[in-house]
Structure formats: structure tokens, C-alpha cells
Amino acid sequence: MIEFRKCTDFPRGTLYDILVDAYSYDKRNRQIWDANWKETDDFFYDNPEIADQYALVTCLDGAPIGFVTWDPRNMPDYVEIGHNGIREKHKGHGYGRLQLGEALRRIRAYEGLKRIIVITNSNLIAPRNYESAGFALYDRKPNPTETAYTGDYLYYELML
User: Fold this and answer.
1) pTM surpassing 0.90?
2) All domains in the chain, ordered by first residue
3) Helix (H) or strand (E) segment spanning residue 109
4) How many Å apart are CA 57 and CA 79, to the nearest integer?
5) For 66-124, what is each residue's pLDDT tens digit?
6) Which tens digits make up the pLDDT trace of 102-113?
7) Can you list the pairs that 60-63 forms with residues at least 24 positions away whose Cβ atoms lie under 8 Å?
8) What dihedral do alpha carbons 91, 85, 64, 23 form, nearest 10°?
9) On the chain, which terminus has fewer CB atoms closer than 10 Å, C or N?
């Protein structure tokens, strides 16, 4: 059974562990993003009031299999989706779509919000997930960084 729970229902390190697993398909991901993933985990566990309001953990039969975060600091203009990942062995079963759907349901509840944005890369599965949820591509930029293997930067928005 799928359920959505608070970050603080799980010990520190849970978000980091999910990200490590979600991006384990290419070892370069961890080499490049490891520090960012640790910072994300630390931020949400150091700020539980933020974690429980602007993130959710997706659980399958009680075990955390994914999570998504969002940044509300630019409301009412927009909310930006942050990390959004599912453990590798649970990909391809629709859990990512359910997770995104729950996050969007919660974000849409903010009164006066104009749009939801997300930035992702062209060589990932993520663009299909966002497009299927109604996001429209509004910009694309080359990726000249060490993460160029993930493809161009794609900028999506969902108008409310």
C-alpha cells in the first residue's frame, strides 16, 4: 500500500539514502552530487518545521521508497519543485507519478499561487513524468557543466 508521510517520521539520513539509490544507475551522479544530497538531508532534518510542510516521503508497505521537496519562497508567483526521486528498484511502477501527483495536490492548495516550476535534464526520465502531469516546457539551455551527460537543462511550468 502506498502512503505519504512526513520526513520526520524517519531518521536522519533517509532522504540522502533515497537519493543515493535513486541515482545509482550512473556512478558519476554520486561523485558529483553527494555533497548536495547530504546538505539536503541535513537541511530538512535540521529544520523539521520546513520538512514537514514542504516535503513528503512516499512509502510502500511502510518503507520509504521516494520523496519530493518544494520551495515556497517565491509565492505567490511560483513554487519550485526540488528533489524528486524514487528508489531504483521501485522505478517503472507508477510510484513517481503518484508522488508527484500528491506533491502537486498539496502545492495547489496554496491560495493565490500562479504556477509551479521545475528544472530537470533532457536525458532523464523526469521530463516525461512532468509532461504527463501537465507541465509545459518554456525554456531549454545547454548544459556545459560536468553533468552534461544528463543532457540539456529543461525548464517546465504548470500554470494554475
Assistant:
1) yes
2) 2-159 (3.40.630.30)
3) none
4) 18
5) 999 999 999 999 999 999 999 999 999 999 999 999 999 999 999 999 999 999 999 88
6) 999 999 999 999
7) 60/1, 60/2, 60/90, 60/95, 61/1, 62/3
8) 70
9) N
